[in-house]
Amino acid sequence: MENRQVMLPTHPWSTIKPYIKSIGEGEAIGRYDLGDEYEFLCDLGIIDSIRTGELTDMGNSYFEEAFIRSNSIGEEKILQRLLINYPPTQAIQQYLWGVKNITTDQVLTVLKATGLWIFEEKRLLTHLLDLLNLGRIIKYDRRNKKIEILISPDTQGVPSSVFIDPTKPYGNIYWIKRLLAECKGFIYWIDKHFMKEAFDWIYAVADANHIKEIKILSLNLGDHNLNSQAKDSYKRLKKELSQKGIQLIWSTIDSKLIKDLHDRWILDEKGAAWNLPNVNAISAGQRSEINRSENYDEIIKAFKQYWNLSKEVII
To answer: Which residues of 163-188 are buried (b: 16+ CB within 10 A; e: fewer)?
Structure first.
């Protein structure tokens, strides 16, 4: 799996926390002052990686609760919200939620398997677990090295990173369905190798109260993805969804007109954009990720350009 280069805390939270106070008070602190902790606080969502050395909105909220109001409950809630969106947290939740008697070695294996462990010093894992315990994401018994996950991965909706893995065949499909179910207004799905298996996922969540239009754009790969069974599935689903008030269109585009496209995306009308593997990779559980993208405007512009060059599948 691709290495995501996400930083973990290299010191205990009690050592890192005073730096947040200093930044909130207006002291100029940069990446050279904080070292690896600077990147960690950016990844956590406390330091703004664009406005160098400034706190994010959530970072400011944490600063106010912790250092101005001295509100321990409010501080804990904000820290929990930050940690919920932190990729290592999401990986641990997705792999180990509901598992009994979790050990620190199991957590380390998850981080390694998802490409989130790039370190030599194992003490960084202890700092991470202590922080997750502080944010009440987990219950961590340091003496016995036992862990319990306290928050299910789906309590906040679809995580910003979803890990596809061969050991989670049910979970892989569950998350793509959740993603589709959360789309609003329309679903635009671009996947050169789109396959008919995804029609089942669409059917399971298609709700005319939330979705009016579904556009799928792919290549025509003959028997690989556009055989008679696929066309029949498309025809039947198109008719059934139309009876609900949802328009489904599957179009294909000549490969010569889409050479500059590599990734696959799902978009909706409300600004959500997801980068994801192809349908077959999700079905087969090939190690990969589904990630929320921040480039909605560029992606939907490209989708519309490709769509105008495509032709609907003939049924």
So the answer is: bbbeebeebbbebbbebbbebeebbb
